[in-house]
Amino acid sequence: MKGPLFYSKILLFGEYGIIKDSKGLSIPYNFYNGALKKSENPSEAAIKSNASLKRFAEYIQNIDSELVRFDYALLKEDVDSGMYFDSSIPQGYGVGSSGALVAAVYNQYAFDKITVLENLTREKLLKLKAIFSEMESFFHGKSSGLDPLNSYLSIPILINSKDNIEATGIPAQQSEGKGAVFLIDSGIIGETAPMVSLFMENMKQEGFRNMLKTQFIKHTDACVEDFLKGNVKSLFKNTKQLSKIVLSHFKPMIPQQFHELWEKGINTNDYYLKLCGSGGGGYILGFTEDIEKAKKSLSDYKLEVVYNF
């Protein structure tokens, strides 16, 4: 048995903000993927994945059947015979490892599933998001459902607000373009749940709530608009502001050894860094108007280009 591949994703804009109704833009990232598999000689990783799938199967048995129904008998049979999720998606890196797994399980075992081939109305997208949110909560305690949605549909998703999401097109990449979005590997595994708890704790302070509304969400929304319209100049102006705001107000989410690097980008304009997912480790997302300049400036790190302007 080998199921279809599900890809990783990158939330270009909207981390934390989408919890409080900012815009967001999520794109599939085909560099990493995962699939459900069975093997005669499972590796240690496969055995570990199978144990985790067993717990996940028990968890989804308790999801409200009004929302979604699964073929539990078949799922249980497959899990008992050693099925695991074979994935190249790094865990704790903010590129949606649990999202791809959730998408794969829904695809294989859900009854009456909504497919990418039908007309994806807003209602259908919101229903999928609600199903995936319930399923992925097993991994994160609280999930928006967006990662699995992106992985399942494998198309860019524009988040206008919590109850308003749509499939979208993004400007075609300029393969010769100097501008780029890239990833840097922090070398640390990030944990989503504690970072989200910290954010929720901060939200109790009026000053933080104010900053989020008047600065963070304002620039996030502007970045999404700029990116979709191809307003590159304005995009970099807003990304720089976003990078500054994150350095000032989300410092605990940035690994310590990157504080200086973050500031260097803002001061030199060689690149601007932002969180990729919840932060605390994993990947860091970078934006640059000149990828060669950024590579020189970040010569100690390997940059993985995701998109070219």
From TrEMBL:
Keywords: ATP-binding, Kinase, Nucleotide-binding, Transferase. The keyword Nucleotide-binding applies. SUPFAM superfamilies: GHMP Kinase, C-terminal domain, Ribosomal protein S5 domain 2-like. Transmembrane segments: none annotated. One of its GO terms (molecular function) is ATP binding. It comes from the Bacteria. It comes from Pseudotamlana carrageenivorans. InterPro entries: GHMP_kinase_C_sf (IPR036554), GHMP_kinase_N_dom (IPR006204), HddA/FKP (IPR001174), Ribosomal_Su5_D2-typ_SF (IPR020568), Ribsml_uS5_D2-typ_fold_subgr (IPR014721). This is Mevalonate kinase. Residues 83-147 form the GHMP kinase N-terminal domain. The lineage of its organism: Bacteria, Pseudomonadati, Bacteroidota, Flavobacteriia, Flavobacteriales. Pfam families: GHMP_kinases_N.
